[in-house]
Structures are given as structure tokens and as C-alpha cells.
Amino acid sequence: MLVWNAWAEKQRMREPAVVADVRPCEPTALAHLFMLNSRREETVRKTALLLMLAIPSVCHAWGADGHKIIARIAARNLDPQARAAVKAILEGQTLVDVCSWADQVRKQPKYIFTDGCHGVKIPVGAERFELDRDCPEGRCAPAAIEKYAAIVRDPKATRAERQDALKFVIHFVSDIHCPVHASYSNAAGKVAGEVFFFGEKASIHKVWDASLIARTEKPWKRYAAELNRAITPEQRREWAKVMNPCDWATESHRAYVEFAAVPPDKNTLGEEYYQRAIPVVNERLSMGGIRLAVFLNKLLGEASATQPAATQPAATLQPVAH
Fold this sequence. Notes:
The chain is mainly alpha-helical.
């Protein structure tokens, strides 16, 4: 986002009324640029459009493409009952449609309590994630997954509550499979916060959320299809044996320690780092997709069994198209 930030800063000096409130990852704010009329402003508008198309949008979590890839893989592996339930609860929206919703609302007053639920923090030297030690207040992804899964199952929950809860489950299962969402809680000065990834200054978080995926130059639909085809029956079975979100957090933390975290004096990352990291990214995306599907197949089967007959998804509903 460095190119965008530099451009926006220049425009801010020239046209504060036009772009002062424009922030990366907010297309609605950028839309104001497309209402300008003067010839000079036409140039600004075209420049903004080119930058929007050229630079990946990065806000939180895996980034938009990472979440879409996991959601698409999951959608391809849902059973018919889960597909019908997704369509009913989300009122026609798909897993891909809602997979980043939790990032979009995390700062809104109604949902601000979810802001700390997108990952976990684990002390340096700890072997694994421990719920009591690392999530005493319940504000972490594993606790949130269980909390919102319970709401999806709850026959007394309203339609809106179940819809929000399902969106949170979809997002947090994805988040906890990202290594940088299981980082250290006390590693200040020991791990590089900022790095140079192929010459571009970025946080290590951004590198793993989005830059590694963007480096492949694959459209997300193609990326998801390739990963899904490459998953073997043996991998599906093995990954489905590990369905405790606390274990997913431990896996991601170990990947973070081994592959993502770099000391401050080794913060120049290039092809060697990319070649080491991208297989880990691919595996975590694939695991996230398969486990999200397995989790939803079980969750939505249970939820259908607990719902009153009048509110259960109809058996004749067609699978969701993705």
C-alpha cells in the first residue's frame, strides 16, 4: 500500500476536501473521487482507479483473497444439508460473499467486542496454545468459534443472531489457520515487526496475510481451484481428525515460529523466503478450507436438528452456487 499512501498524501496536500478521509481498503470512501467534474479532478479520478486495480486491498486477517480461497474450498466440500442450511441462514449469500464480513464490522460499536477475536497470542517458549493461560477473558479465535457455533445451534436464537454467528464462525475458522494470527504475546524487540519484502516495506503480518498470496499472481478463484484439486483423500481424512480450534491455534503458532518470525537484523526478505513460505501458506489455506467444511457440516447438521420444523431449511433447497 506504499504507492497508494504516497499518492494519497500528495493529493491530501492539494485537495483536502476531496481525499482527506480516503483510507486504504475503503472503496466506499474512494467512491467520492468518482463524482468529481473538473478536468484536473478527472486525472485524479483515473489515477485512483488505476491504483485500486493495481494494488491488492489489505485490511485484516488473511486479506480478502485468502479468506475467499478458504471459503471457496469449504464451499466445494460441504455436504447437501450444510449447503442448504448456509443458503437458508445467509438468505442466499454464499460463504465467499460473507467471509470477510467480520473484518468489516470489527470496529463498529455493535461488534467492537469481536476485535480481539481474530487470532491468539502465545508467550515466547510456550509449546502450544492454552485456553486458560492465553485467553482468560474469552477474546480469542478458539473461544469465539465455540461461542458463535453455540448460537448457530441455539433454537432460541433469532434469525439475525444466527446469521451473524455463522458469519463469525466462517471468518474465525479461517483466521486461526493463518500463522501470523498465532504470534507471540511478548516478543518485542526479538521479532521484526517491519520487513522489506522484495524491496517493499511492510509488516510481517501483511506479508503473510496478503503479500505472499499476491506474489503468486493468481486470481483467487484459480488459486482456490488448484489447491482444492491438489488435496488428497488422505490429507482430507488427516486434517479432519484435528477439529479442536485450540489445536489449530497451536499449528499456526508453530508455523509462525518456524517460518514467519524473523529477527530484526534479518528483515530483508526475497525469493528464498518466498520459496520457503508459500508451501506453508498453501497448506494452511487448504487445511482451513477443508476444516471449515467439516466444521460446518457437523454444526449445521446439529443446528437443523435443533430448529423448529417451520424454520428448518427445506430439504428441496438447491446447493449454493459459488
